[in-house]
């Protein structure tokens, strides 16, 4: 690649995505580095200001995640009125679609978080549109084998040892649910593009309308038209299509309201066909990171189907899973904000600010999770009654609230830590840690507690809780040893390659350098970007 004007000839053609995964452990502590990123504890005033900035981005996202998941709970609750068997079918069907479609798509689109936030921080706005185009192509192509897989859902469920009557109904549900998958792929790309730029009120507006129409559509299809389980699956498809239209409208509005020089969408471009290497590698790492985490939860559901009285176990685990996800949406929204904030600061060559954002965000995640536990535990019976009137299921749910509370605390930390890794383009590191903690420790613990020690569903949830605490401890150890100056330089190289060099050239040739402090940019130039 021929050097562009304004970019030193020593700039690498491709960014360094192949640094050893555990390199942070091999570096000296941050306070010992020459760049001064770790020169002392953050001033309380700076931390408070950073917390406010994170909340400005993360508050609307957390609320939007909560609203959208409330719509899922509405679907779940209305279906629960059909009985415990319907809940079991729903839980089993969604476990399969989560293990395959939703998990893979969430991972494949994970590169959008990193590249778009860093490009936004670097003021390389056109690169954001190129990232979106690449993400749409990759995610829609990913849907093709998934839809083929869903066509064979019935034999797959039987091969997994599920009871024939559950397998038959769950397979039918999956077949009707399948059109939702490509719609979800598009929605993930649009959502992440807006969130990575901090355009969170646009996302919130789309989610609010989506939630507002959830109950009427479910009531119409499940009860008014008497479609039952079929109506529930079709309602998910209809709602996803509505959400897609809302997000498209919000993206158009956001782009139109930006100053001409900051508009990130200028139409489809051939430039999107170049620079695929880093995008695909980061997408693969993000996919591995997501599925290592998500699959453990869905394996829990499949294992619950093998316990004595599987109908009750599946229904109880489905309710606990939904409560966990409901509370986790708050941390998940903050995680997106964490990724956007860290990515933008690294893209803007502000490593010390990125480090502070990571520290403050992790503390915020723990605080939110702790507050949720204080509310949930005293109301464990009442919470279960919101989902079902089956006494056996209610008692089973109440017994699982204690391990759930412990899980929420550890998830509060790992959610924000994952956001930091996404902002730094360190998804490969996250995938390795998730794999070790979840499958080297968590899954064996779940099997031993649930089946060998006969703790049943409680054993499954205690096992997954233990693995999450281990995951949080390892991630925190790695993050505290990051060299944030090196992360900022690496982010600039990523944006350079992502935009085929053109946008970075413009940035270094004029206005952007003036926007950054000479102290921040000088080390980057010396090191040969």
TrEMBL record:
Residues 1-39 are annotated as: Disordered. Keywords: Membrane, Transmembrane, Transmembrane helix. It is found in: Membrane. Pfam families: MatE. This is Protein DETOXIFICATION. Belongs to the multi antimicrobial extrusion (MATE) (TC 2.A.66.1) family. It is a multi-pass membrane protein. GO terms for cellular component: membrane. Its main location: membrane. One of its GO terms (biological process) is xenobiotic detoxification by transmembrane export across the plasma membrane. The chain crosses the membrane at residues 96-115, 127-153, 173-190, 202-221, 233-253, 279-297, 312-335, 356-380, 392-410, 431-453, 459-480. It comes from the Eukaryota. One of its GO terms (molecular function) is antiporter activity. It comes from Chlorella vulgaris.
């Amino acid at each position: 690649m021929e050097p562009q004007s304004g970019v030193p000839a020593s700039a690498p053609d491709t960014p360094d995505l192949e640094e050893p995964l555990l390199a942070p452990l091999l570096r000296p502590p941050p306070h010992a580095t020459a760049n001064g990123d770790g020169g002392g504890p953050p001033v309380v005033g700076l931390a408070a200001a950073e917390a406010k900035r994170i909340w400005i981005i993360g508050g609307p996202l957390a609320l939007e995640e909560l609203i959208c998941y409330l719509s899922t709970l509405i679907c779940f609750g209305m279906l629960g009125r059909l009985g415990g068997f319907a809940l079991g079918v729903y839980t089993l069907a969604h476990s399969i679609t989560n293990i395959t479609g939703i998990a893979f798509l969430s991972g494949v689109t994970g590169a959008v978080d990193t590249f778009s936030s860093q490009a936004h921080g670097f003021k390389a706005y056109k690169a954001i549109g190129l990232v979106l185009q690449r993400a749409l192509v990759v995610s829609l192509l990913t849907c093709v084998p998934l839809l083929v897989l869903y066509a064979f859902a019935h034999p797959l469920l039987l091969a997994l040892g599920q009871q024939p009557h559950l397998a038959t109904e769950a397979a039918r549900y999956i077949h009707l649910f399948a059109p939702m998958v490509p719609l979800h792929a598009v929605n993930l790309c649009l959502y992440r593009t807006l969130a990575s730029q901090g355009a969170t009120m646009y996302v919130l507006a789309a989610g609010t309308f989506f939630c507002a129409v959830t109950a009427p559509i479910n009531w119409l299809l499940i009860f008014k038209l008497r479609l039952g389980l079929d109506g529930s699956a079709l309602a998910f498809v209809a709602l996803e299509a509505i959400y897609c239209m809302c997000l498209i409208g919000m993206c158009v509005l956001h782009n139109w309201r930006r100053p001409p020089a900051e508009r990130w969408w200028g139409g489809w471009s051939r430039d999107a066909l170049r620079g695929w290497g880093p995008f695909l590698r980061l997408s693969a790492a993000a996919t591995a990171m997501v599925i290592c985490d998500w699959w453990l939860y869905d394996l829990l559901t499949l294992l619950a189907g093998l316990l004595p009285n599987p109908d009750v176990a599946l229904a109880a685990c489905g309710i606990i899973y939904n409560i966990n996800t409901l509370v986790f949406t708050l941390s998940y929204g903050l995680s997106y904000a964490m990724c956007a904030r860290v990515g933008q600061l690294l893209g803007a060559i502000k490593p010390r600010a990125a480090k502070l954002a990571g520290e403050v965000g992790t503390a915020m995640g723990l605080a939110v999770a702790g507050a949720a536990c204080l509310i949930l535990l005293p109301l464990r019976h009442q919470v279960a009654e919101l989902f079902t009137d089956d006494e056996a299921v209610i008692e089973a749910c109440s017994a699982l609230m204690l391990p759930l509370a412990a899980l929420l605390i550890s998830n509060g930390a790992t959610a924000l830590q994952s956001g930091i890794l996404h902002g730094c383009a360190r998804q490969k590191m996250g995938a390795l840690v998730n794999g070790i903690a979840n499958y080297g420790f968590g899954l064996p613990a779940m099997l031993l507690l649930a089946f060998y020690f006969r703790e049943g569903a409680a054993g499954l949830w205690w096992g997954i809780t233990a693995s999450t605490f281990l995951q949080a401890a390892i991630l925190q150890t790695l993050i505290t040893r990051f060299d944030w100056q090196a992360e900022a330089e690496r982010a600039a190289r990523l944006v350079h390659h992502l935009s085929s060099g053109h946008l970075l050239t413009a940035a270094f040739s004029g206005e952007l350098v003036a926007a950054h402090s000479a102290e921040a940019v000088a080390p980057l130039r010396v090191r040969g970007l």
